[in-house]
Amino acid sequence: MAEILKIGVAGLGTVGAGTLRLLERHADRIAERAGRRLVVTAVSARDRRRDRGMDLSGVRWFQDATALAADPEVDVVVELIGGADGAAKALVEAAIARGKPVVTANKALLAIHGTALARAAEAAGVPLAFEAAVAGGIPIVKGLREGLAANALSRVYGILNGTCNYILSTMRREQREFGEVLAEAQRLGYAEADPSFDVDGIDAAHKLALLTATAFGTEVDFASVHVEGIRHVSALDIAYADELGFRIKLLGIARLTDHGIEQRVHPSMVPIGTPIAHVEGVFNAVVAEGDFVGRVVMEGRGAGAGPTASAVVADLIDVARRRSVPTFGRPAASLQKLVPAPIARHRGCYYVRLMVVDRPGVIADVTACLRDEDVSLESMLQRGRAPGEAVPVVLTTHETEEAGMRRALDRIAALGTVMEPPRMIRIEDL
Amino acid sequence: MAEILKIGVAGLGTVGAGTLRLLERHADRIAERAGRRLVVTAVSARDRRRDRGMDLSGVRWFQDATALAADPEVDVVVELIGGADGAAKALVEAAIARGKPVVTANKALLAIHGTALARAAEAAGVPLAFEAAVAGGIPIVKGLREGLAANALSRVYGILNGTCNYILSTMRREQREFGEVLAEAQRLGYAEADPSFDVDGIDAAHKLALLTATAFGTEVDFASVHVEGIRHVSALDIAYADELGFRIKLLGIARLTDHGIEQRVHPSMVPIGTPIAHVEGVFNAVVAEGDFVGRVVMEGRGAGAGPTASAVVADLIDVARRRSVPTFGRPAASLQKLVPAPIARHRGCYYVRLMVVDRPGVIADVTACLRDEDVSLESMLQRGRAPGEAVPVVLTTHETEEAGMRRALDRIAALGTVMEPPRMIRIEDL
Fold first, then answer.
1. What average pLDDT is seen over chain A?
2. What is the DSSP letter of B218?
């Protein structure tokens, strides 16, 4: 067996501790799969004294994460610090500069600096691996980059944030509102104290940007992702979705269009007959559509110590076997600049919920706004009567361009009989 | 870019032609992913004159497939002949003996000779890759062998035969019987003229044997797979399954138990709430359960020219990049002998349908048989009355051992009031 692979781990939070535990628990199995032993020789974390439930006495300790890159007892750096800049970026750059392979779970870092880091890694001839950054334990990066490598992909989409999926699943099952379920998720530890990264869609957008680059061979372009979170999804919309044959999911969608590549993260109406409609709770799922392979779906746990450690160690085994692929599948030097398709050019069907005063003529006014913008109605639903009071009216449209849809919604919002801002949710053709 | 990779393809049926088409259509994309160009330099097939819709004039042609292995213009051999022995086996052995990597879609060959071939490949230091042999375009072999490599797996199971899944899905949707739907599937080209390989579960068992070896690091042991096909599944059982909250699927299941490794292929009652209950038609799906990663599900097209070619070329790209892993994940020399858990020791819940004479006392006799073998009843369903005639009675049991269940069924079958052999379908705890 070849010499041991000496690993430096920066960041000993949940995932870092999980990675150390996995490397220890399955040391023999991993050695067999890797062709050599994987040994953690150095770690870096803020607080040395914290009890992490494991013996770190034989392991070198660095206050400053960047020092891991320089340590001659470290062959490969595992970056689990997080954050798009600061210590994480400094460490990854230092490791690459020293010719050391990097394994990271840091989606924010790669979403912002992925292209530059991939180029640096390629120039240095070292792998930069990030399976753990997207969809936790699901081997989706390997799946896209190697398993489906021969296909021209037309679309990649999925449920990329477990916190949002948990909240939406719970809202539906228990018919409760967003705020209430979020508070409970925070109590249970499924959502952060500051939940905005998750519920506003940023985390999903980071991951989507990485999937896009991997699927389409483009530079990572987080800035052009259209992002909407789930704060505005109401129990009422979820109930209507059910009635119309949909589930509401926060999807990340990357798609080739005539206008460039569309990257969108937003609540979506997902037809109940599709596989991802049934992905509930903290699970993630990613769907890839290739010209030869057809539709491939991968589902699993998108976060947590165990699943993320599983992905980190899979990358380490690849490093140990010197099994290397360009970071985003195609050589970094030839990654294409991404031409973003503007969201205004998006074509699709739409769900719209209005709260209108229940009196004659209102529907005529609303439908006139749609007609004036060439938006064709597919269905209309008004349930219950409350003369003179606000009642919900739900519309779905045929396929139309988003720009026109938005103009129609502006007209509708301006009607005196429409009491709240219209709620619009895109219907996905999956 | 490195020198070109010269490919010899044996077998130009649907998959062979699809592979050639894919290599040609996406030559540039594949070259980028592979780091070098992949060129088909030689082929072998029975009939040279058949029109395959492509120009093979510049390609060397061999009547005898084995000659591909000896051709100095062939770096890697793609075996798409099929069959557990004969030309396929001779070619693969010859290629390995000459130190040439092999990519194959041949599940029968590897199910029978996989251990020996993996050892020969390892001794020769060449990869033997078989992504296309299991679940078509789904990158499940790579997923298990690399993506989940760090996990101790406890169970791997799935829908491994698209023909059976198509037949069962259609039977349910159209409330029709097996024979009728099979005949239609044959007319549509979804089932072979001799359908026994598919409908009797052999094909699924071949694939399961390969998944087992990959998941558990054991020798391939097709002989110990317990196999039952779908010929006995009736529309009536499918309707009862629906009523009880199940779908009937032909599953292949490999599981670690206290008695060894269970390998079973048979119709199964799958709870409607699970992801694979919704896998319909010709799609395949595989579920793996790992101790760190949890449950991972992969779904896609299990057969056909495009999906299978996608898997073949993915393996070729790995070969081109010299990205190699032991055939079944762990070195062939250390594959463990598989200790098979006898099906008689299987523990689970059971669905049983009886056709009994509708008269007082029959149920008492049936339940006495179960009691005498310590089988505990979970539910009993008798719908409709037809005094003196045969009516269906459906039972489900609590968890029990298969040996006792079978003895109870023998007793029940011997009752004078039971008109047909009892139908038993295992309920899976997924």
1. 96
2. B
**To the nearest whole angstrom, how far is the Cα of B308 from the nearest Cα of chain A?**
7
d(CA A104, CA A87): 13
In b/e form, how buried is each residue of B315-337, taking b as 16+ CB within 10 angstroms? bbbbbbbebbbbbbbbbbeebee
Mean pLDDT for the stretch of residues B192-221:
97
d(CA B170, CA A424): 37
Quote the minimal CA–CA distance from A127 to chain B in Å: 13
CA distances from A229 to A178, A202, B232 (A): 12, 8, 50
pTM over 0.80: yes
Largest CA distance in chain B: 82
Contact A51, A18 (CB under 8 A): no
List, in order of start, the domains of chain B with CATH numbers: 5-133 (3.40.50.720), 140-302+333-343 (3.30.360.10), 346-427 (3.30.70.260)
Q: How confident is the model at residue A58 (pLDDT cuts 50, 70, 90)?
A: confident
Option in B301, B311, B334 nearest A32 (CB): B334
Name the helix (H) or strand (E) containing A398. none
What is the per-residue pLDDT for B162? 95
In the residue annotation, B207 being an active-site residue is answered as yes
Cα separation, A147 vs B15, in Å, equals 17
**Interface probe with A: pick from B103, B122, B140, B296, most Cβ of A within 10 Å:** B296
ipTM for the assembly = 0.96
The packing angle between helices A235-244 and A162-174, to 10°, is 80
Enumerate residues 6+ apart whose C-beta is below 8 A from B6.
B39, B41, B42, B73, B74, B75, B76
For B72-109, the pLDDT digits (tens) are 999 999 999 999 999 999 999 999 999 999 999 999 99
* B chain contacts of residue A329, beta-carbon cutoff 8 Å: 33
Rounded Cα distance, B325 and B172, in Å: 42
Active-site residue list of A: 207
Q: What are the chain A neighbours of B318 within 8 Å (beta carbons)?
A: 146
Q: Which pLDDT score, from 0 to 100, does residue B58 have?
A: 87
Q: By the 8 A CB rule, do B104 and B8 touch?
A: no
Task: Annotate A228-255 with b (16+ C-beta within 10 A) or e (fewer).
Answer: bbbbebbbebbebbeebebbbbbbbbbb
Q: Is the pLDDT of residue B277 over 90?
A: yes
How many angstroms separate the CA of residue A401 from the nearest CA in chain B?
Answer: 31
Query: Which chain A residues are Cβ-neighbours of B122 within 8 angstroms?
Result: none
Instruction: Please state, in angstroms and rounded to a whole number, the distance separating the CA atoms of residues B80 and A241.
Output: 47
